């Protein structure tokens, strides 16, 4: 269970880093994803597991590829 939580937290930090690099607020990105801001916040804090489809939506909203989403993920 802790491994999954760690993975979710690392993923959330990566999404936040990419969002901030594009000068988007969490409210901006949640609107692009057609998500409630509190639900989006759960992604960045690692308090939820998301589907591959949602990852694809994040990539589209940030105008990045899956590869870019996971670049430097393990650092």
How many helices does DSSP assign? 5
- SSE class: mainly alpha
Task: Tell me the strand percentage band.
Answer: under 5%
Helix percentage range: 55-70%
Strand count, sense and closure of the main sheet? none
Order of H and E elements: HHHHH
Indicate the low-confidence ranges by residue numbers.
none
How would you sum up the global shape?
globular
Mean pLDDT: 93
The radius of gyration is: 11 Å
- Based on DSSP secondary structure assignment, what is the total number of beta strands? 0
Distance between the termini: 21 Å
Can I get a quick summary?
This protein is mainly alpha-helical. The protein has helices at 2-21, 26-32, 37-44, 52-62, 66-70.
